[in-house]
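Box 3.1 — From sequence to structure: Major facilitator superfamily (MFS) profile domain-containing protein
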Amino acid sequence: MSIPGSSGLLNAVGKRDMKFFSNRYVLALTGAAGIGGFLFGYDTGVISGALLYIRDEFPAVRDNYFLQETIVSMALVGAMLGAAGGGWINDAYGRKKSTLLADLMFALGSLVMCAAGGPYILILGRLLVGLGVGIASVTAPVYIAEAAPSEIRGGLVSTNVLMITGGQFFSYLINLGFTEVPGTWRWMLGVAAVPAIVQFVLMLFLPESPRWLYWKDEKAQAIAVLEKIYDSDRLEEEVELLASSSMHEFQSDNTASYLDVFKSKELRLAFFAGAGLQAFQQFTGINTVMYYSPTIVQMAGFTSNKLALLLSLIVAAMNAAGTIVGIYLIDRCGRRRLALTSLCGVVISLVILAMAFILQSSSSLCTAAANGTCQGALGWFAVAGLALYIAFFSPGMGPVPWAVNSEIYPEAYRGMCGGMSATVNWISNLIVAQTFLSIVGLVGTGLTFLIIAGIGVLAFIFVALYVPETKGLTFEQVEQLWKERAWGSRGNCQSLLGSTA
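Predicted structure (token representation):
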């Protein structure tokens, strides 16, 4: 069976018309896998509010920015390690077992944090939770993408991002709800064990990814799963595509190594695009906002812990709502256009946010204002900039990097490359989380946000130059796209694994 070149891609895509809500089985798989995304969001978001009360309980933390940053960022160290190993675990043992392992890490880490008697045990718990986050960040998008029809794949993978932002919103809600409860931060951090246990039980009854099964020569099981997704006519087409792709993989001895990613020109281009998207997602500031939004709100002049959490809850709700918009748009407008539009708004909103802090720090502008009216107005201006940032970021640069990375790599390298690019995400995330407060202390809040805005401009240029459109393409068509990018008209004659620069 021939795989269409770029000239035939749109025609092939036009014949596919499955709708987002037309198959409940696919939605059920997406929802169950998305609990990993929910835990990802909850465990990365909950620390923003818990940190306010951890500082109150532990004097050693209260006056030590480095220790505060370490409590926040140790989960990112774990996530970095989990993502790096999670790609290999996914390819060797499957998406299902990887999810079960992530759930064990989530539950154990949550219980350790809940019982922590000091900041260093708390840091250990954050490391364990981070391992679960890292594995889940690789596994959930790939599991969903491999079960999803190509024409709705972007929306379904973006549903996992909705679960991430929903988890962040829920963490803020939990933070607000436990403000008056004894042991405030312990409840905030410990409650994450519950959804981890729920997902573990659900996954025991769900199938392995059909593409992974087919790749591992479990063809009968793979087809049994595909029969629940496609009608008979479409099923035949999908099986033929799988057979064609798998034949190519087996001709390469069904082996994959990390060195192949850098030896193969096609893989190198794909990884550069995917990893670049993941890095820019973080360096344009999203998790700076999500981890430190209560702190940012307090920097803007709202000193009450409860008010800071309430305003941050609104920001988190906008993040989740914006992701829903992204789910609607990603398979209609396309990944590339959505990312470029998102980045334009991100840069504008970061400039607004920066100017609010710069003006607020200029005391001469407000000396004539009675009762701090000017400072209060600028504080609300900063909150508006924060909200505008989320409104632009969440539909585009939130879901697009995860969607693109779930679909741009060939089967034999999907877990491995997905893990590598997710590791880039977490390394970037760690750098941002570990340095944000220190940079603010060094150059000021306003200039810090101006620096992030400059990175947003670089991100726009990167996407415009290096990220292709993959809307509606099958995995096989995406593979052909990279061959043509690497070799031009010779792409039809080049082997993905045999080609080296």
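Summary of the box: The chain is about 80% helix and 0% strand.
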